[in-house]
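Lay summary. Proteins are chains of building blocks that fold into shapes, and those shapes determine what they do. In this project we predict the shape from the chain. Here is one chain we studied, written as its sequence of building blocks.
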Amino acid sequence: MLAKEELLLIVYFIVVILFLTSFAIIFFITFQKRKNKLLLEKFEAETRFENELAQSKIEIQEQTLKNVSWELHDNIGQLLSVANMQLNILSGSVDASAKQSIKDIKEVVSNSLQEVRSLSKSLNNEVVGYSGIEASIKNELLRFERLNNLETELSSTGEAIEIIVKDSIILFRIIQEFFSNAIKHSKATKLEVFINYLPEELHLKIKDNGVGFNIREVTKSSGLLNMESRASLINTDFSLNSSPGNGTSLSLHYPIKIFPYEKNDNNR
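And here is the predicted shape, written in a compact code that computers can read:
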């Protein structure tokens, strides 16, 4: 009889231990799930905050560039136009010996007016969005050729695809930053841009023949960080390569996004 009671007691203790163990395991799993959920929510909140901060920064930059564009077009452009008209009037009232000098000045003023208008277009996001990525790049390269005696080349393959305006502006600003660095630091004499339109992707590759640099030894500048943050906002793969004596190249892989009306048409 005693042996039976001892056996029941042992079974009872085993059941209690199993119950407590199961409860502990369930509690631990639930706790871990809850912890992981909180960590994920925190990570998502931080990511949203960083994206919103980056987006706000870009919006401020774009508005600043637009204001500068308006100032160039409306103020400086108008002043140069007036100066050109006054030179036209003046050329009719001077002797032949001075006409050539006025003609030379008129040419400088006309070229300056052309550059101001070209720069105004490249700074205004509305113009960039309307013109499209390829036309905006072409306008920028032509401006560099006129100003810097820089040889440029633009080639395009595949069937051109319409890109969301906001994304095309961001892509163009990334490329502008690369152009700016190439002109300021690389001592390049040539800039090449390759555009490849694919069914699901736009591939942009830009390279210069400058002095290059060792990426591992260079601390990321605000310009490079700005390019990377802009690319991440539109889910674009960003790759910058360089080495001393071999120039610098930038590769962008932008995933083509379907417009809302295209989705609706597919669902009909």
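What the prediction tells us: The beta strands are 151-157, 190-197, 201-208, 237-242, 248-255.
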